[in-house]
Write a structure and sequence with these properties.
This protein is mostly helical and about 260 residues long. About 75% of the residues lie in helices and about 0% in strands. The protein contains 13 helices and no strands. Helix 3 (about 35-55) packs antiparallel against helix 4 (about 60-75), helix 5 (about 80-95) runs parallel beside helix 7 and helix 10 (about 185-195) packs antiparallel against helix 11 (about 205-225). The chain is globular. It starts with a helix and ends in a 9-residue tail after the last helix. The relative contact order is 0.08.
């Protein structure tokens, strides 16, 4: 239920889970709980809430702190190798998004080591390719970055997508890479196509803003300075300016890197 609520963008269910968790957290010191199943449930709950903050609410630091709490609890429990692998993968994504490539690569290696030690666990290839693509992008290795993101999209497109916006960030990364490679026509095509096909809520304002940035970049690459490039940039600025969470955490914002 937790994961389904997250990726189906069921805000009512997520708010209910969050309220239950806060109530439970006020009454119970998880460090004193001896029941293993309770500890697993607690760590799974805070992990998903952390992902919600990190991925969808763009509250990067809060999401990171919650994922780290889940890791601290689960790493001392027997089994749960798949869950531990997911935690390493999400931490890798956090680190690469704040520009900490060293810790991103180390977290990916921990995820791979778990797979080597426990072949039966299901590694998340989507997450692996996504983070790897971001690492290559940050290192200026655009051809490798594009190859990794295309692997990632191939995996995602072959699965049932609960919501169009679930894929949106991956396509946006592909457009960003193409812009860096000066393939402005393709970058623009991707942004316009996904933007027109997707349904948005107010929680998606960051995605829209970041798309406007890539559209502005593509227009500048194609036509130097023109009205479209300026208008896209202006709309992006307005949306990001109105995002209170992003503005309150500007030093750790994904936009800083």
């Amino acid at each position: 239920r937790l994961v389904f609520s997250l990726f189906s963008r069921d805000d009512r269910a997520l708010n209910s889970i969050d309220e239950w968790f806060r109530s439970y957290n006020d009454k119970v010191d998880i460090n004193k709980v001896q029941n293993t199943l309770q500890k697993i449930s607690y760590s799974e709950c805070i992990f998903v809430l952390g992902l919600n903050d990190f991925i969808f609410k763009q509250n990067v630091e809060k999401g990171y702190e919650q994922i780290k709490i889940a890791q601290k609890i689960i790493e001392h429990l027997p089994g749960q190798q798949h869950f531990k692998s997911n935690i390493y993968g999400q931490l890798a994504q956090y680190y690469v998004d704040i520009g900490d490539l060293k810790n991103a690569e180390e977290s990916l290696q921990k995820m791979l080591l778990l797979k080597t030690k426990y072949p039966e666990i299901e590694l998340s290839p989507r997450l692996y390719y996504l983070v790897n693509s971001k690492i290559y992008l940050n290192n200026g290795q655009y051809e490798f970055a594009l190859k990794e993101i295309e692997y990632c999209l191939g995996i995602e497109e072959n699965k049932i997508i609960l919501n169009n916006t679930f894929l949106y960030g991956t396509y946006l990364l592909q457009a960003r890479i193409l812009n860096r490679m000066k393939n402005y026509n393709k970058a623009k095509e991707i942004c316009l196509k996904i933007y027109k096909q997707s349904t948005f809520t107010k929680l998606d304002s960051d995605l829209i803003a970041l798309t406007y940035i890539e559209l502005s970049t593509a227009e500048l690459g194609l036509n130097s300075i023109n009205n479209d490039a300026f208008n896209y940039a202006e709309q992006a600025y307005k949306l990001l300016k109105n995002n209170k969470i992003r503005n309150n955490d500007i030093l750790h914002s994904r936009d800083t890197y």
